[in-house]
Write a structure and sequence with these properties.
Mean pLDDT: 87
Organism: Flavobacterium lipolyticum
Family: Belongs to the GtrA family.
Structural class: mainly alpha
Low-confidence stretches: 137-143
Strand content: under 5%
Distance between the termini: 29 Å
Order of helices and strands: HHHHHH
Main location: membrane
Number of strands: 0
Keywords: Membrane, Transmembrane, Transmembrane helix
Subcellular location: Membrane
Largest sheet: none
């Protein structure tokens, strides 16, 4: 049903997401617990740092074969920034809901929220919109 290439790309994207995510999550805890920022602000800051790491790995390693390394970085950065804004908003809101409505610790609520946002929002948009292969570009690169 899925090609080996599609599975490999998905796994690579998960490595990129993990590295960005672990940075994001660790920094969120540091900012909240040590620097006493509200977790919603911590998520904003840590999400931005994690996004830079995620974008870099995705662009250089994961999707370079699909979208070509020479793709217009400005367009990719703009699209990625929109995805990150949506992602950070969903993570902040979801974590807040788990904490306020269900009385779940923000660290646990964040992990639950992240799993939904990562697979249902981030990955599809990053793969099919941010780093989508341009048909004209693929023809040129294959010649």
């Amino acid at each position: 049903m899925f090609s080996k290439k599609a599975v490999f790309t998905f796994l690579q994207a998960q490595v990129a997401a993990f590295l960005g995510g672990i940075t994001d999550y660790g920094l969120m805890i540091l900012l909240t617990e040590v620097f006493q920022l509200h977790f919603a602000f911590s998520i904003l800051i840590s999400g931005t740092v994690g996004a830079v790491i995620n974008f870099s790995i995705n662009r250089i390693w994961v999707f370079k074969n699909q979208s070509g390394y020479s793709s217009h970085i400005n367009s990719q950065l703009f699209k990625f920034a929109l995805v990150v804004l949506g992602s950070i908003s969903l993570k902040s809101f979801g974590t807040l809901i788990f904490q306020k409505v269900f009385q779940i610790d923000y660290r646990i609520g964040r992990l639950i929220t992240d799993s939904f946002v990562s697979y249902g929002f981030n990955y599809p948009l990053i793969k099919y919109w941010v780093f989508r292969a341009n048909k004209k570009q693929n023809v040129v690169e294959s010649n």
